[in-house]
Amino acid sequence: MSITGGNGSGKIRILIADDHEMVLDVFAMYLSSASDMEVTTGKTLDEALDHITASGPFDVVLLDLNMPGMNGVSGLRRAIRINGGKPVAIITGNPTPRMLDEIMNAGSSGIVLKTTGVRSLANAIRFMYAGEHYMPLELVRERHNAGRTTKNGRLSDKEMMVLSYLAEGKQNKEIANDLKLAEPTIKMHVTSICKKLSATNRTQAVIVARDLGLI
Amino acid sequence: MSITGGNGSGKIRILIADDHEMVLDVFAMYLSSASDMEVTTGKTLDEALDHITASGPFDVVLLDLNMPGMNGVSGLRRAIRINGGKPVAIITGNPTPRMLDEIMNAGSSGIVLKTTGVRSLANAIRFMYAGEHYMPLELVRERHNAGRTTKNGRLSDKEMMVLSYLAEGKQNKEIANDLKLAEPTIKMHVTSICKKLSATNRTQAVIVARDLGLI
DNA sequence: AATGTTACCATACTTAGGTATGGGATGGCA
DNA sequence: TGCCATCCCATACCTAAGTATGGTAACATT
Q1: B102 to chain A, minimum CA–CA distance in Å?
Q2: Could you list the mean pLDDT of each consecutive 10-residue stretch along chain B, which spans 215 residues?
Q3: Is A58 inside any structural domain?
Q4: How many folded domains does chain A comprise?
Q5: Considering only CB atoms, which chain A residues are within 8 Å of B203?
Q6: Cα separation of A138 and A113, whole Å?
Q7: Which domain holds residue A120?
Q8: What is the CA radius of gyration of chain B?
Q9: Which CATH number belongs to the domain containing residue B203 in this structure?
Q10: pTM score
Q11: Is B38 helix (H, G, I), strand (E, B) or coil?
């Protein structure tokens, strides 16, 4: 992708979709005042996709992760497919470590935090427009450390991995398939997770983990 | 409280705290352009409280529900106590029915949704400044239905009861003892709950229920 | 009085979850 | 080098969870 590439008008065409109308208002107000950007907005994934099919791929697409129609990363994949190779990024508040992985693995061009001010947002957009992958520093740092320490010891990488599956209600067999491990191994991890979280079963483990902010 | 009451400058003094800096930017940009408002912002509850103690109660205080330091409504109560009778409201994305009750019972002056545009926000603020309680229509409607309705039917009283036990990670036998019912009956309820919540097992049911705000 | 809904209990069965134990491989570190 | 933690796999066993089916009773609606 060319850094200077663009459309006829010379402006970067940006598409933003979020069900928080307030956030859309930020973009409409701030980014449009940046003379080199032209912003289109939507409130659902379908609205966003309609915009793309109607007027062609945008130079940068920003999608809220929790917006109607997204269904996690599956909506992201749809958008990436439709936007013809141009960057699609996610905008969200507090992504879980696992969501981060999924988002980046799905081929997203980056992640923008709502805890970030609008000023750095414009920079992030230009960065992704140039073909780079953008991720806030605090996420990179947090990503590996995370909370994960409990009074009964800290959770290992694999345990965190398994925990994130538990948090989706997956069963051992599914987890084993996904992680290419044997089911007994998963059971072992689950048992270990429960011990460390002082939970008596997987359901309690998920509850505790959510309350602790581990996931 | 006087409708026209204010401070010396004649402007409505507004304090807004949210860890999403983007949201703060909206206020800073939009509301300050409304000539009768003067906006102060913060990123945590403590910052907000510091502002209040430093410069006295604000005419309207808006607090994000999920911001660091809030701990649900307990942070709200603290703010209300400190702000000396002047209105304190909550700003949030998707509040659960239970949260709504707690918020209003805690003495909040209202709830502002992030799904609302900034324009109606200014009106909401003036409304609360006049001593009224503000709540978006869509919330009032939802509230009466008491959540509990899903696309596959609504949960019965017993099912809600059982669900609340599931949400604590209790097992069928415990629930049966507590509710003085037979274990098979509990199993049946669990199965029914899972169907209505489109979950495949109890753990998923809990997750879905939490996300839907049923518990 | 018939119908529908909800709640309740039971038996039987299959699958999933959790525990206990043991062993092998890796890699960091004292 | 030996020690320790982590990760991985396996077998066996028992309990919990979930499904299927069928039946009784209370109660409100029609």
Answers
A1: 18
A2: 46 93 84 83 96 96 93 92 95 80 90 88 91 84 52 74 88 88 88 87 88 75
A3: yes
A4: 2
A5: 166, 169, 202-203, 206
A6: 10
A7: 12-142
A8: 21
A9: 1.10.10.10
A10: 0.77
A11: strand
